[in-house]
Specification:
Blueprint: E1 6-10, H1 18-24, H2 28-44, E2 53-54, E3 68-70, E4 77-78, E5 81-84, E6 92-97, E7 100-102, E8 105-107, H3 111-124, E9 129-131
Parallel strand pairs: 1-6
Antiparallel strand pairs: 1-9, 2-3, 3-5, 4-7, 5-6, 7-8
Length: 136
């Protein structure tokens, strides 16, 4: 078990850190809550499973994907999509997509499938991710 889990962000086709772009669009209080939960994830990893870390999640067809959501409560219910690894599943997580939840429905509705596709891209090309960029 690692002392501290490593966090990575998904890099899009244009080379932009998509998680940093999403988190920069959040209000200050939402960013603070996101950072606090990511700090917890970094410290204790999968020990959060069942509390603020939910998954594996089903896709739109009902099949389970190796995708998790981090549950961050507030005025806006943040639900960043992430996976263990996917390069080293024992000591890292990769944030794949910024999402929210309203009335038990994810926005975007295809968040799990998009996150699963991004995970597969990272497995084919490790340059599709970068170390997590914390925004304030």
């Amino acid at each position: 078990m690692p002392i501290e889990w490593k966090l990575y962000d998904y890099v899009g086709d244009s080379g932009d850190n998509e998680i940093a772009s999403w988190s920069k669009s959040l209000q200050k209080i939402e960013k603070a809550k996101l950072n606090a939960k990511l700090d917890m994830l970094r410290r204790v990893g999968m020990a959060l499973h069942g509390s603020i870390l939910a998954g594996p999640l089903p896709n739109e067809q009902g099949s389970a994907e190796p995708i998790y959501k981090l549950k961050i409560h507030g005025k806006v219910q943040l639900r960043p999509m992430l996976c263990r690894g996917p390069i080293d599943t024992d000591c890292e997580f990769t944030l794949l997509l910024g999402a929210t939840e309203v009335g038990d429905k994810l926005d975007p509705p295809n968040a799990v499938s998009v996150a699963a596709q991004r995970r597969e891209r990272i497995l084919r090309d490790n340059n599709r991710r970068c170390p997590h960029e914390r925004t304030t």
